[in-house]
Amino acid sequence: MSVLKKDVTIPLYRQYFLPKEGELANATKDDLEIDLLEGRSYKVIERPDCFIIKNDCMCKSIRVSIKTKD
């Protein structure tokens, strides 16, 4: 398991864009492991050029760590 981003804060109604480059070039959203450190919910959207981690919590910011599965 490789840690891609650690302790990322995603504000209310915002998204975090994770480019598909390097080790993520051929990855799918099933290859990602998102650890929700604070908050209630998130949504992962896969696009051809990036992954989008969307704050799906309606009342506050969320905090996540993003890893790849082995």
Task: Based on the model shown, name its key terms.
mainly beta; 70 residues; three-stranded antiparallel β-sheet; globular; 6 strands
What does this structure look like?
By secondary structure, the protein is mainly β. It has one domain (2-68). 0% of the residues lie in helices and 56% in strands. It has strands at 2-10, 15-19, 32-38, 42-46, 50-55, 62-68. The chain has a 3-stranded antiparallel beta sheet, with no helix packed on it. Strands 2-5-4 form a 3-stranded antiparallel beta sheet, with no helix packed on it. Strand 4 and strand 5 (50-55) form a beta hairpin. The chain is globular, with a radius of gyration of 11 Å. The N and C termini lie close together (5 Å). 9% of the residues are buried. The model has no long low-confidence stretch (mean pLDDT 94).
Please describe the topology of this protein.
Blueprint (H helix, E strand, L loop, with lengths): L1 E9 L4 E5 L12 E7 L3 E5 L3 E6 L6 E7 L2
Antiparallel strand pairs: 1-6, 2-5, 3-6, 4-5
